[in-house]
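Course assignment 3, question 2. Fill in each field.
Student: A.L.
Task: Predict the tertiary structure for the chain below.
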Amino acid sequence: MNSIVNLIDEVREMTDTFVAGMRKEPACRLGLDNRCGSAYVDNNLEAIVVDKSNARSFDYYGGFEYIKGDDRVELGDYVVYFATSERVADAIECLMEHDGLCESEDM
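Answer field:
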């Protein structure tokens, strides 16, 4: 029998599996304060994903508190911040610089 509870469980399980396949990075590699902790980065470099329990640190120490609307989505036990937000795009670009995928304009 289908139920909303089963659907929620399936979505959480799928989300956990998907996030587990993402790369986990410390905040400093994203150009953020170490007090943020760590985050998962989407393989296509389109989003940063954090555990809901850690989202408050990213909001406060990472400057993500102003990311709202379609740029921020809660999914299961995670908060997804999309690179359509300038703050997130800057963090992903910092990671790309660490990986040698691009050079900063400041260099």
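Instructor remarks: Helices lie at 4-20, 52-61, 86-98. Residues 4-98 form one domain.
Grade: pending
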